[in-house]
Description:
Layout: E1 2-9, E2 17-22, E3 27-31, E4 38-39, E5 47-52, E6 56-61, E7 66-70, E8 78-90, E9 94-96, E10 107-108, E11 128-136, E12 155-157, E13 174-185, E14 191-193, E15 205-211, E16 224-229, E17 234-238, E18 249-253, E19 259-264, E20 270-274, E21 279-283, E22 294-298, E23 307-312, E24 317-321, E25 325-330, E26 341-354, E27 360-364, E28 370-374, E29 385-388, H1 394-410, E30 417-418, H2 420-433, E31 440-445, H3 479-482, H4 492-496, E32 514-515, E33 554-556, E34 565-570, E35 585-589, H5 610-622, H6 626-647, E36 662-672, E37 680-691, E38 697-707, E39 710-717, E40 723-727, E41 733-738, H7 740-745, E42 749-753, H8 756-773, E43 785-789, E44 794-797, E45 818-820, E46 826-829, E47 835-838, E48 844-846, E49 869-876, E50 878-879, E51 882-884, E52 888-890, E53 901-902, E54 922-924, E55 938-939, E56 943-945, E57 951-955, E58 966-970, E59 976-981, E60 987-991, E61 996-1000, E62 1011-1015, E63 1023-1028, E64 1033-1037, E65 1042-1046, E66 1057-1062, E67 1065-1070, E68 1076-1080, H9 1086-1090, E69 1096-1100, E70 1130-1132, E71 1135-1137
Antiparallel strand pairs: 1-49, 1-54, 2-3, 2-35, 3-4, 5-6, 6-7, 7-14, 8-9, 8-10, 8-13, 11-13, 12-13, 15-16, 16-17, 17-18, 19-20, 20-21, 21-22, 23-24, 24-25, 25-26, 26-27, 27-28, 28-29, 30-32, 31-34, 33-34, 36-37, 36-42, 37-38, 38-39, 40-41, 41-42, 43-44, 43-69, 44-45, 46-47, 47-48, 50-53, ...
Family: Belongs to the TECPR1 family.
Region (Disordered): 426-472
Domain PH: 732-771
Amino acid sequence: MTVPIKALQVPTMPVSLLWAVDVYGRVYSLSTAGQQWEQCHDAQMEFKRVTAAQQCCWGIACDNNIYLNVHASDLPVRYQEETYENQRWNPVDGFSDRLLPSDRWQWSDITGLQNQPLDNFRIPSDSWEWEGDWRQCCSWWTPLYLEAHSINGWTYAIDFPATYTKDKKWNSCVRRRRWLRYRRYKAMDTWAKIPPQQTTLPDPFSDISCGGWEINEEPRGRLSMWAVSLQGKVWFREGIYHHNPEGSFWEEIPLPGEVVQISCGPGDLVWAVLWEGQLIVREGISRDCPKGTSWAVVDSPSPDVGATHVAVGNNVVWALTKDNKVWFRRGVNSHNPCGSGWISMVGEMIMINVGLNDQVLAIGSEDRAVYFRQGVTSSELSGKTWRAITVPRDGDRSHSSASAGSLQSAGCYFCGEVRAQSVVSDVESDTEKGSTDGTSLLVASSSPESFVDAPTDHSDQPIETPKPRIPKVTSDSFISELVSDRDPGKTSREGVAAGPAVLEDESLPGEEEIKAPCVGVAISPSQSGGPLDPQWSNVDLEEAQGHLVQTGAVVDSADTCSLSSVATYTLAMEDPYGADEHPLWAWVSGGGCSVDSHSQLSWFNCSMNTSSMVQSVQSMSLSVTPAQTAAWRRQIFEQLSERTKREIDNFRHYEQAIEKSVWVKKGTMQWWRDWKPHKWIDVHFALEQFSGSEGNKDGILFIYYNFYEEKKYLHAFINEVTILVPVLNDSKHTFAIYTPERTKQRWPIRLAAATEQEMHDWLALLSDSCCDSRLIQGPPSKQAIWSLTCKGDIFVSEPCPSLEAMPYPTPCDQMFWRQVGGHLRVVECNSVGIVWGIGYDHTAWVYTGGYGGGIFQGLSSSTDNIYTQVDAKSVYIYENQRWNPVSGYTNRGLPTDRYMWSDASGLHECTKTNMKPPSPQWTWVSDWAIDYTQSSVDLVPLWAISNKGDVLCRLGVTTLTPAGSSWLHVGTDQPFKSISIGAASQVWAIAKDGSAFYRGSVSPQSPAGDCWYHIPSPAKQKLKQVSVGRTSVYTVDENGNLWYRQGVTPSYPQGSSWEHISNNVRKVSLGPLDQVWIIADKVQGSQSLSCGTGGWDHITVRGNSMEPPRIRLPSLTAPAPQSPLPVSNMKVNGDAVGC
């Protein structure tokens, strides 16, 4: 049985996007690393709302059509169309397209039930394009040893349908071959309309929500898309995945009532809001049934006020009621999607959304700003406080600078009054035509003659400004409340009473003339002077805020060659840059925004009054003369010198206290007691770290416990700790601390923290302390030794010169190992610092030079060269049955039989229910399924083996480009399973039948060589792994025996015979100086050594080119030497090394 499981380790926060829509229908995105909203300028219409995932963003436009924006990536979106050509043999024509009436179509799908001729295939929309023409799927993709049997791609069988083979037999009466054609999705980073299906939907959509990407990883990029129509029906989009981002068709989902809004989380949570204010929850969502099976009704958070909006995440549900109150649903998880109860939260919002990692975003009901919920962690899902996102938009800053520049270029400042009669018709016409900005009106004077002397009889009268109000936007419908159907016959007083905004129901009585900050009688319909695109429509606020700028106007860009100018009037209550209004948001989506509790965001540091501050600084700088500037600088320098003398120079004779500091961190944990009966007991844990007078750091661990009401303690020195390993435990967050003595005893110090985050914090802190005590900083060196545990965790050790010094090498249990973020199955390196790895899903990874990652953040991790790694592996358990004459094969075995559900050895019971993921970073992504295939893979820096056994050579690998450029396929006559390259380009490999091969004529000029030389394996043994050093070749067979190849010389690199070295060997690794390291198998006490950590599974010392010091043993008669023999430099892998 097999279960693929997935581990997601995020060493650093990747750059992702937060999407939002303002009340004018414009779409903006905000990067997690950015500090301003970027407008989607390619959108040619207004949008109502959007819903985002990491790879794409969906939206409903004002034309009621759904649009898709797929993010561009290095991997193109390609879809493979296929059809099968079928032929039958007859005695006259041989194989031809003359089929029997009962046969399948000449061109069909794989089942033969659907007619699929080549000319019937069409691209689904204008967003796709064909890549080439149809071609036969023939022998280029087949393995080399099957190539002779595949002629033009035909496969043969006795009849339709039957089992097809590549061999043509005497009774092969039918044959078929597959034709392929690829189409590529070309509409990347732009909004593309989703094509309507064959049957037009009865009504347009009013809400959409995407999610479900964590339900199933196959096919890659799969999404669940839910939509709500205006009639309250719910629809599900089928067939959305990476190769088909648009999906296939809509399917209606039965409902218990009319729905107004729906929300889908990354997992299996789907909630919706009914028209009556109740909520419904979709149940039965699984990998095999992403649409679910039934609905469950949940009452509104408030019995008197119905719900209007709901948002779900992985394990959270947030809701809003009609009074804009915020509610949090407790007890929600995959097993209980309905939760257990509501909790009232602080704040009043009109819209709420849950992003990745259960982070919450909302839009305030009063100021219409986007708020981010701070303090959301896995242990505190409700968060702590709301914080407004105060970054500007991309057009704000440039707009204000252009306005100031156009004022100065005009050479004059405008003041006076504008007659209402002269501007009203132009204001109304401009309002109805709209503008590309959608937030301001443009008043321009085309020549100096258009200036009019305004009367002054009303100059002293104050202007009555209406109270600013913002229209309410509900989740049911917001765009209709924002559209203002103006009457062209409005009076002039109504047209300008509230500034540039035209109000339908409110006007300012009593005044025929309105004072304005500039004079002008001509109004341009657009900034370019031409008519606007009819696709665009200006959506103004129905209850806009009246706010007249009485101190002056900010002028937009104008032609510097004339005296014309443009004055911009804001509609909002606050003006961030003096040109555009305070942004009013209508919708936000964080489904593609990857933010966690440790993310450092720059969304809250931008002041909304930046423009006024810049203007004040500019005005202040205009009044400061150069003489005043020089005096001011001199005064500051004198004050700084005085302060330095007062605070530093007068105390130089004192000893710096920081040189001998003691720093203590305490906490409460549980400790697995050393003596019997073993059990968890509560202890106090303390780390005491101190620094000496020379700056060296060290520390001690203390564990305080009670033994028969007597207080005792256990301690360990930091410089004696050799490795810190997280331990898998069903109910506790535990980790193990190893020292050389405890490694020999096979009994580490095991501690359990209260939460997973606390465990990660302690592991990161202890790892930093261990590195500080050993003066280890930064990334691993080129000579580092890399190793993997059985759980896939990556560890690295820095070799010391005495590590392999003879005759007294450093014991392996004294090596210090530090963890590196990531998860691999195989890792290999060389002495120039190139490190490659293979994940459990057979994906190749290259080490980029970063360090830390994973749980190691802050100073213990680099800020760049850290990337996200996703891995998947399969867990196998075996179902065993015994045959009996009565009932056949059953699970009733004999008392001496193995367990009915066991591991491969049959010694350990492994059932479906008691199998747990190997570590807390893993999650199950599928149900149990029968496995019919198995594959293996191995990797070295320049040569690799695919999971199908093909041999590949990587070209272009250098220290500057460790990832290389391309793969070169190397032909073989059978699949391989292990490969290794040593000095002088010696390439050895192991085939799946257990025999060895040597690749001849491999050189830098010919990296792939020319031919394979078969090397017989040892008698009655099948080899499984090979490792090549400078002059040595070692192999390991399937029985755990270690073999050495004798007679390997430069003139005869194939060697002459095999010599048995040892048994009980799991893996072997040879260094560039012929160092031999192994991982021992079946060592006494090794099972207790792992204690849930997994034990060692792979090691590579191929990067350790450090020569051990040569020590001459003292003779009994001759005097002892005064110093060791000098060590000369040598070259390893082309690089000079030495000690």
